[in-house]
Amino acid sequence: MYVRIFAALAALALLGATTPAPERPAASKDIAAACGIHDGWSDPAPPAQIFGNTWYVGTCGITVVLVDTGAGLVLFDGGPQDAAPLVLANIRALGLDPKQVKWILATHEHFDHGGAIAALQKATGAKLAVGPFAAQAYRTGRPFPDDPQAESLKDKPMPPARVDRVISDRSSLSLGGERFTALATPAHTPGSTSWYWTSCEGKICQTISLADSVNAISADGYRFMDHLDRHTNVIVGIGRIARMPCGILLTPHPGQSNLLERLSSRAQLVDPSACRTYADAGMERYKKRLEHEDADK
Q1: Which of 6, 71, 95, 250 has its CA 20 to 30 A from that of 149?
Q2: Could you read off the pLDDT of 68-112 as tens digits, one per residue?
Q3: 24-295 sits in which CATH class?
Q4: Active site residues
């Protein structure tokens, strides 16, 4: 009897693992055309399927990602403050209920990615989980004092959000059998966090890699070589992104990785080397930045 029950449960599990994601008629097949020349952070974009149960619900200029775990929804980032209604509308357009968003997971603590999070928490009831070094910035809405962009961001706060969980480096949050792993990658900001998880279509599974920014930029007058801890973290963060598991690369701004074109079948979507290529380009830009700093001494 127990053998038959076990076999039945195993069959059900296998069936669930090989069932394709449901069709979502509102999902765009050509989000690149829908956005066209528009790449503003608050320019509305239609939702689009990334792979399996993972969806793009952001704007033309800011990546926001939704994962339907079957036991609730997980949202990555929120965009700027005025993008909150656009994200909620995209979730509804997919036939999903925003009230089913159980967790919001964050990348880096700047207003263009976290500005909408407080409003999205209020609208959905979701909890917020952040990486190991970002909690204070989300709770206060202010960048860290040692953020190279702090001076230029002082007049651009994000509404403070309630942080419900701080996930340690290389630890995971799980929901509905899906596991989302955090990786501290402090290249762009002190609290930068990248995430990766697995999404399947039938028997084909891909690693989805939301790699945070590898752009080491700053306010005017800032010199990385005068802040050796920050310089070291840039090197470490970019290196960790280069080595992270990679299949389908996502980036906080879609233009950083040609994402809208890849979602529209205009370029290769799956590329196991994409994280390294993305990181290498960031490192080259940082080396040029250091050369300029040295020349300007």
Answers
A1: 250
A2: 999 999 999 999 999 999 999 999 999 999 999 999 999 999 999
A3: alpha beta
A4: 108, 110, 112-113, 188, 222, 253
